[in-house]
Amino acid sequence: MNQAQCDNCKTEYECDSEAPSGLQLRCPSCSSTSKTFSQNIGGEISFLSMLGFKGRHTDKSIPFIWGKVGADLFRKIHKVVHLERTFDKDNDQYKEEIIDKSTGEVLHRCDEPLSKHQGHGSAKNLNKIT
Ligand SMILES: [Zn+2]
Description:
The protein is mainly beta. It folds into two domains: 2-38, no CATH class; 50-127, no CATH class. The protein is 8% helix and 44% strand. It has two helices and eight strands. Strands 4-5-6-7-8 form a five-stranded antiparallel β-sheet. A hairpin with a 4-residue loop joins strand 6 and strand 7. The longest helix has 7 residues, at 121-127. The two termini are 29 Å apart. The model is unreliable at 40-46 and 120-130 (pLDDT under 50). Residues 6, 8-9, 11, 27, 29-30, 32 line the site of zinc ion.
């Protein structure tokens, strides 16, 4: 169980963020789903979080930079890894780094021109990770 505080009315309530419905739980006093979790139990927090991002120039609708950063499950080795992947169109750069979180070992690193990466053989394999 985690303690959650409602972002709206600041009521504190218990909320299990690891349960599938945990993030949808509503505040008991105002029914807002917006809340901040505070972890008050020891131990490792092991839930996966992945953040995707996109950047657009104001005059264009097509993103010039996009990517992902966060924890991911590397199915090939059944391990949680740290993944960073950036597609940077403006600088013609593709970067990817996969690190084993338990050992800090770099499992995969890629830094190459984005134009060369497109349709690349390894691109297909890497898609399986996501
Ligand atoms: Zn509330």
